[in-house]
Structures are given as structure tokens and as C-alpha cells.
């Protein structure tokens, strides 16, 4: 009898413990559900350089993001919620990029990650993005070739900039091309694209140099350029230090060699920072420059409206360049995709973006190419005169960045990839 009583007592105790355990589990799940349901903001993580070598561009992008988020929130937010911008300073330090990317993803639990000026910074965090399967926007001109299921690139790429630039310069000035480029993946791969397009247009590379980031003295480089006597000088320099080249180039007395670039003037406004004629006779294939607003192009009113809004919010800023526009337009594209998906869930937003989301903004219509995750956009040829006055002698409409899809068979809508292709592979 005593044995039976103890058995029943044990069964009752076991049952009670099970009920308590289940109650605790249900309570925990309820807390999670309540937390998710009660989440009153959508979090946008932004990694840009507020300080350091790339801060001239990074601050423009930060402020463009703040402008875009403020406009979205003033219009009612997304899915009935306000967008919260979390934007720590990455300090132009790739180790800091990695640390802050992990923090934003794992601790802050952002719904989307954007940012990076340099390609080195992008490549420092892309593996973290892919490991954590989070949506990432790289809103910057770059060397092209990234095929990643979780990455969308909204800035200019070689199809927009280098193909157009080299065809025109070789036709107008001659076949001999000298290239100086920043010594990291942006400069190296962009130089490969310049080589490819130079050869295809009947030209030749008569000199090529890769300059380490942080270098600001160019006397020996200028001497080698003079000795090579090129018809065209292509400059693919990056960062505040390397831009010192232009003042030294102007002081060298060379006046008859045109310069071509995909970055300078449109990014870090060297035509305003340096006294004329440092940037005389420079061409840049730009996706946006603030001077578009004063041009006679059809896009001028929209460009000027964006510039005016930017300076109203940030009156002490010095310039509104193409990466500011890329950041702003990317946030608007993301917002439209979130609204279409009806959620911030990564796969659903990617699927919405891949349908070809468009935004008609400061630089004209920008549309996501679903296969490559890059942007179909207009390109404007900008020229700097003797007094650094900017004119736009040519424009190209709706250039499709299709090298990845046509040459490499990339279709991210059907086959996820996580690589960067090179034009000379």
C-alpha cells in the first residue's frame, strides 16, 4: 500500500513538473510573439565612413540616408511603422566594418544592411552578410562583377561607366592610354576593364601603375606619364590622400592630355576642392552630380529638387555627389520592395526586388535588374573646363548592366551565387 502511494505521488509530481515546463515554454513563445508583434520600428543598419580617408563620400551618403528615412517616416513609414536608422561610424577601417556589421545584424537585429564606400570594405563584410542571410545594399560606384543572392548594387558599374568612357576618349583623342589606379580591388579590376575596353576600341595601354591607398606624392608617377606620352590618362584614384595627384598634375605644366575617370569630381568634388586648372579637361561618366540641376538636360528639375532638399537639411555640407544619390535612391527602392512584399522578411523582399522594382528619382529612372541585382540607370558624361565649369556633352539612357548575365550566365533569380567575377577571367 505504501509503495502504491509513493508511486501515485511520483506520478502527480512528474505531471505537475511537466505542466510547469509546458507553461514556461508557452509563456516564452508568447513573449517572443508579443515582442515581434510589438516591434514598432523597422531597422535600417547603415555602415558609412563619417571619418577617415573616405569620409568626404561617406558623409554625403550618411546625410542622403537621413534625408530618405525622414521623408519615408513623414509619409507614414513602412507597413505602418517608422524606419529607425542605425548608423555608426566605420572610420574608413575594414576591421571596424566587420565588427559593426556583426553588431548591427546580431545585436541590433536590423532588417536590412546598407553601406561601404570602398570595395575593400564591401568585401570585408559581404561574407558576414551571406553567412547571416541578410539583405545588403552596396550603394556606390564600383568595379562590377559581384554576383551574390543577398547583395544589391545600385551605383555605376563598368557597363555604365568604362565602356562608355573609353569608346569616346579613344575616338576623340587617340589610342594610347596610360592608367593610374588605387592599389586594391576597385582599382585593379577597374583597370582590367579599361584594358578590355581599350583593346576592343583599337587602343593600347602604354603605362599602368597601382598606387597604394594613403599615397599623396606623385612626382615620379607624373614623370613616367610624361615619358610615355599618352593620348589619354585614366585616373582611378580613391580617397582624400590620392586626390592630391590633381594639384601636382596641374603644377607639372601638362595641358594637352585629357583625363578620364569613373569617380573623381562626381564623388569627392575635386573640381571644387582644387584650384583651376587642376581638373581641366577631365571627363567622368557619372550617374549623378549636383551640377545636373543647373544643366539643360531633361533631368535637371528633379536633380535640383534633390539638391535643394539636401542642402535645406544639411546646409553646411559641401557637395551632393553620385553616391549620395545612389544611397537615397536605394533606400527608396528598398522601401517600395518592402511595401510590395508586405514584410521585411529577407527572402520576400529579395523576391520583390527581383521583379524589377523601379524608382524615378534625382538621376532619372533607376530599376533593379533581377538577374544580376544591379541597377539599370542613366549615365551622364561630365566635362570640366579650364575654370572647372561642368558641362554635360552627352548622356546615355537606361544602360542595362548585363555583363554578368550575358557573359557569365548569372541569373540570381534561379541560381544563387556568392562570387565576384573579373573581366579578364
From TrEMBL:
Record-linked Gene3D superfamilies:
3.40.50.2300
Domain Leucine-binding protein: from-to ranges: 41-385
InterPro entries attached to this UniProt entry: Leu-bd, Peripla_BP_I
Residues in the signal sequence: 1-24
What superkingdom heads the lineage?
Answer: Bacteria
- Keyword set for this entry? Signal
So what family is this one in?
A: Belongs to the leucine-binding protein family.
- The protein here is known as ABC transporter substrate-binding protein
